[in-house]
Structure formats: C-alpha cells, structure tokens
Amino acid sequence: MFVELETDAGVTGIAEATTHDKPRTVATAIEEMSNFFVGRDPFDTESLWLEMYRDEWFSKNVINTTVVSAVDMACWDIKGKILDKPVYDLLGGPVHGTELRAYANGWYQDTGGSPEGFAEAAERVVDDGYDAMKFDPFGTAWQSMSRKEQNRAVDIVGAVREAVGPDVDLLVECHGRFSAGQAVEIARELAEFDPTWLEEPCPPDSINSLAEVSRKSPIPVATGERHMTKHDFYELVTRTDVDVLQPDLMNTGGITEGKKIAGLAEADHVDIAPHNPQGPVAGAIYGHFCTSVPNFRIQEMFQTYDVDWIDDLLKEPLVVEDGYMQIPDGPGYGIELEHDVIEEHEYTEEKVHTIDLWESGWEDRAQEKR
User: Fold this and answer.
1) Do strands 169-173 and 319-321 pair parallel, antiparallel, or not at all (unpaired)?
2) Which residue intervals define the domain Mandelate racemase/muconate lactonizing enzyme C-terminal in the entry (predicted)?
3) What is the mean pLDDT of residues 76-89?
C-alpha cells in the first residue's frame, strides 16, 4: 500500500503503509486521522509524530502506528525534495556508503518442504549473488514440535548449510512460534550449522520468553518486527540479551521513530537489521535510513523473488545486484511511483497470494491439523 502526501507547493511525498492483511483498514485510518496532518508543515516531523501518537487513545496499535509511519516517511521525502537532497543526507549522511548489503528472502516457497528442495533453492540464491539468506524450516509449528517435525527442520538447515558452504550467512526464521524451552532446544540442535541468528523465536507478547531464550541460546537472537515504537524496543534492550533488533519502519513509527530505536540499540551495542517484507518504496526508504545508522548490519530484501512486476512499480526500479542494494540518490528518496502499473494491479481479495500448505510441502503437519 502506497501513500502520497501532496503539498500546496507542488511537492509530493511518497511512503508505504503495507501491513499484514489490513490494507483497507489502514487506508480508512489514514482518512480518519487526516485532521492531524492536512494543512500542516511537512518539516514539523517531531510535532506531527507526537500529536498523532499522543492524541490517539489506543496509540500503540499497528494500524495507528502504520498511519503515523506513512505520514512521517512521506514528510521526509518532501523535505528532501524541497532541499534538493537525498534523505540520507538529512539523517546524518551515508555512514555505510550508497550500497547496502542485503539478504534474500522469499526464495524458498517452491521447495516442497524437503531438505533437498531447500538445498537446491539455496544454491540458486547464491548463484543470484547473495551471500546471506533467510528461511523458515519449521512449517506450521506452534509452541512445540513433534520429534519428527523437529528432525526435519534440523535436516533442512543442515542441507542448506552443506549446499552453500561455510561463508554464507544463514538466518533462521521462527515467526514467533515457540515456547522459550522449545526455542532453546531448537537453537542448541541448530548450533552445529553456525546460523548467523535465530529470528523471533517466541511470540512478541512475552518479553520474559525472549529474555530467557536470548540468555540461553548458543545462536544470536534477532527480533522486533512486531514491536511498535521506541517503548517496546526499550524493553527489548534493557530486559533481554537479544543481539539484533529488527524494527519495521512501515509499522513502528517511520524514520523519526526509527532513528530513536537505532540510538537505543547503539547505546547497548546491539545491531539494527530492519524487517522488510514490503514493496519497493519501503526498500528505497530503508536504504536511506540504514546507511545513516552506525549500528546497521544487513537489510532484508524480497526484491529478487517477488512478483514479476515488482520492478515496474517505480519509474526507476530499485537495483539489487550481487547481494547489494543500490540506494537511489535523487532528492528525497529518489523514487517516483508508476501510477499506471499500480492501477493495473489494484488490490482485490482475489489477487492476494496465499500459500497453500500442501503446495509448500508441509503435508504431514497439514494432515495432523485436519
């Protein structure tokens, strides 16, 4: 979901407001909250953020924070365009240059759920130039796994490691599925394959579980994609030993809040690796944000394995080459939407892609659920 804010000076700011399964809800919320920002100065990002968060009664819910994020990020684009500067210059400059190391996601949907399928797909990712990749080997597990399921997950990670060799970062995704005890057990079994991190091992509603896993896991723990605003991330930094924070700027509060979250993490020597399963506008925004963050580690990208029309959504598509994203260097975020293509792919429920458990190869678990 894309957002454009138009100014009376003829400058338009672009943002993305994608959130899981609630596009029409977010669109409605933007209209409902428009009294906060229509007629305001787009340079007033701090006061806009404060008022939109403070004066909404249920402020820290994902719909509200997604609206705040979109307005904030569109304002930063406007600032850059008016000042004729890329946004990263307004955020302190490109600490990490204008190319960012990225890791691949979205590459393993057609693996059949087998170790061999994952291994073959992982080899293609390396052939595409990536030296880091994320994947979820756990099927539809929740809280705990049977021994058979757990063995298959371990075999999948082992097969991928064998296929890609020792120099590729493997980022193991749990999607918040497990109890603390199960997550620690899984981490100990996977440790021999040297994963770079274990992501979101526990549901985001339990800081205590995350704290326990981060203390006991032999694998570094990454989390944060479903945590909203600096307040949640303060709890993660002060109450757990997680190694990597993964704020999603589209949902947690935009660039204004993202810089504060990065500062909290930097104060405790924790890295930032933002969550990014969204579209190309989000990708461009992350490029500008991440290069300005001293403790940035690596950026998630679906770009290579997304829908075949992904590059057509922008007049100048994002470039991801040899595992690095090139940050657009024009004013603002350096991107413009291709409205004709957007209209061609207008949202309807029928067009939403859903993953069939059987096609994804998780037949055993699907059968158990029946």
Assistant:
1) unpaired
2) 115-220
3) 98
